Amino acid sequence: MKDFSFLIGGKAGDGIKQAGHFLAQLFNELGYNIFIYEDYQSLITGGHNFSIVRASDKRILSHKQKVDFAIVFNKDTLEKNQENFKKETIIIYDSDVIQSNDLPKKYKAVAFPMSNVLKESNLPLIVRNAVSLGILAGILKIDFELVKKIIENSVHKKIEENIKVAEIGYKEGLEHKNGFEIEKLKNEPRKILTGNEAIALGAVRAGMKFYFAYPMTPASGILHFLAANEDKFGVKAIHPENEIAVALMAEGAATAGKRAMVGTSGGGFALMVEALSLAGQAEIPIVFVLSQRPGPATGIPTYTSQADLLFSLFAGHGEFLKIVVAPGDVDEAMFLTAMAMNLSWKYQTPAIILSDKHLSESVFSAYYDENKIKIEQPKLWSGKGDYKRYSDEKDGISSLAFLGDKNAIVKATSYEHNEFGITTENSEEAKKMAEKRLRKKITLLKELKGEKTINVLGNKKSKNVLIVWGSTKGAAVEAAENLGIKVIQPMFIEPFPADEIKKELKGAKKIIDIETNATGQMAYILKANGIEVDEKILKYDGRPFIIEKLEEKIKKIIK
Amino acid sequence: MSREMDTKIEKTWCPGCANFTIEAVFKNTLLELEKEGLDLSKVVVLSGIGCHGKISDYLNLSSFYSLHGRAIPVAEGIKLANKDLIPIVFVGDGDAYGEGLEHLIFAAKRNTNINVFVHNNRVYGLTTGQFAPTSPEKFKGRSTPKGSVEEPLNPIELMLASKASFVARGYTGKAEHLKDLMKQALHHRGFSFIDILQPCLAYFDSRDFYGKNVYEMEAQDVSNFNSAMAKALEWDYNNGGKIPVGVFYNQKKLTFEEKICLTN
User: pTM for the full model?
Assistant: First the structure.
């Protein structure tokens, strides 16, 4: 197996993220699958940041704890990332900021005066990322032309100077005694995407015309990506005064016939909940991206969590159909977002994409073919007779006309209403409309029978079963493969695919629930659906599960 | 008349309520504008929650009966999605100056091309008589039985400070004058704001006060911000002083939607 992990550590402002992306592109060009985990703090400069880049000849959805190479820009990295190093780790460090006696003897090290090389070339310290890319490429005997190409593609200023210092590093790397030649694989390079980019692409393919958002980590990546690509995608990315306006503007746009999505994290979603309920009552299609981070309140902004599962499920006063999906990787982020958008329009009801920092901001090799996504049309008004916005249909779904449509008087409302959309307090009518709205779920359940709503992974015959959801899929699937056990991952949370899960659990001996929250929220949903888990493995320190440690924990349980 | 303007459902405003006046003036405004070529199928009525909000139910026009304080952002989304639509947002004083104040300020700041008509009776009606953001100081409402200790907000001053491009004040006791303001607002390309003073017969009957003090402003240079501001400060929304009605400010500038399209 060809599987390499790299850690890049330094302070914020050192260009850690860019260095990680350089490496990812390098290995992507060499035909490897990529995963990048980014660990950073809620500050602009200083502190301690690191990225772990993993490149493998097999599909990977997670990083490993132990790395083969480390690029070290500050002393902090040596102390704070100790648990990521093993004795074989080759540590490439800036000898202008770290003395050789700072470095524990057990490691193989490559000392290089990165800061001085840049000083001589009149380049800022951030260019250490290009120097270190050169050193690493030299150690691994990678053709320098490839390094050049990557710098040309990603650097926008002083490209020649960047290449020159990368070459100085490259020559140093070539001479390193522990160097070896890395194999170029036959695979073509793939698209590498963050979860946020995949969510954005899925929505664009499913016909989104407007994205409204107020900045909030870890969802901001969607806003930035769409704003930077407005013209390419034919969308508008709009940043209003707050999350309340965000959700309401999206609902206004939808009522006028344009597909819209909004994105935020838990605190912003809390502000959107009022509008979520409005979408339930007024039957407005809208997609919410809820990218979780640890709470309560401001919590830990740049870290990960799966603690808003029940919040998303129960958000919104009153009773109405909601669609909740939880993608576990970029492929699922793309197609589940598209599916959520299409279903939201077909059922005229809100949909929620549950992501988290670990999915939203990690980088994955993408396999899913975007061209498979189709815009599915909702039931549109025929144009005949008087239009009834909330006509009482057998399947619960009234035909749609939009504001401004000729001959249609479209009345959307937050009040309980009659079929025309005029306020009612009549008991018969209130009951009739509540039932009409809830009947949409029955229709949706029928449609979902033909769709894949859960993933079954790992050793499908094993009687030891892990239940995971969202980004936890990555580490859990690899741990399960190593241990030869089964994984069930519900991709739909609402409607909950209880029957499908029960079928897969037949004969299971040990059911283990794995989540990054403190109370086992998925286990709670399973229990409500008559499924008891035997054990829970929970993590609630803001960090995602990591394969090696998770594997040990599972091992103890299944012995 | 091209279409029936009423939905024919029972109107539950109090007998003699000034909301009837606003509704009638609005219908007449639309009918007159229709003769000038306005396509009624492009008109979208929006309202918040409060007595005013019922206008969405009563008018046989496309409408969005939104949440309390939340009609304005919905109207902005509608206008962004389809620039041919004409959103006319009826809001209450508690609705626009209390619960949803941030939306009002930002809609003005953006110069989004919508019309905001505030039913300002300076009291909460539907929730049965509490003080409002524009109630006079010492106002005795059900939540302030000893009298409100807050100074009233001056929405004209606030809208000017927020860069609104059309700012006017009307009074339901001057229906013809109000109709003229509505027409000007609908002709204005950009954010149009009318603070419509109205008595609430149930909780704040200010008819005598308005009858004595409201006067129509003489024609003035409405493009001059400083004189508009000076005029806006003539009445502070307390009990006392003369109350000018008419257009304070009218400035031509690009709208939010136009600017968004220019960045294409």
Answer: 0.97
